[in-house]
Amino acid sequence: QVQLVESGGGLVQAGGSLRLSCAASRSFFSIRNLGWYRQAPGKQRELVAAITSDGSTNYVDSVKGRFTISKDNARNTLYLQMNSLKPEDTGVYYCYAEESPSYRYWGQGTQVTVSS
Which of 52, 54, 48 is nearest to 98 (CA)? Predict the structure, then answer.
């Protein structure tokens, strides 16, 4: 089991930046993948960014060049640095940790609101 707690969301103007954090209750040692999803009002949850145990990353096209996913294994913490934010980035952001396809753990979500 892994408990995940997100923080860092808030209200920001378009063009601004936020850094989301996701603190895990234990080591990432057995975790294959970590990532962030977001859900905008009335829309399906979408994968924003992911990072594997060896540090490989991938991003949804809409955030490439603006968002950076990273992890600190010593602090058991996942990050999402979000720059040049747009109103369409608004939503609830959820982090996840995956040990296997059958074992994926989720945080409670943090709200990000970008005003125009």
Answer: 52
Regions of the chain with pLDDT less than 50: none
d(CA 27, CA 80): 18
pLDDT for the residue 80: 98
By the 8 A CB rule, do 52 and 63 touch? no
Q: What does the pLDDT read at residue 19?
A: 98
Measured between alpha carbons, how far is 4 from 115 in angstroms, rounded to an integer? 27
**Cα 84–chain centre separation:** 16
Whose tokens are 């989720």? That residue is 106
Please tell me whether residue 3 adopts helix, strand or coil conformation: coil
| Burial per residue of 96-114, b for 16 or more beta-carbon CB atoms within 10 angstroms, e otherwise | bbbeeeeeebebebbebeb
| pLDDT value for 101 | 85
Q: Which residue has the tokens 């040049």?
A: 84
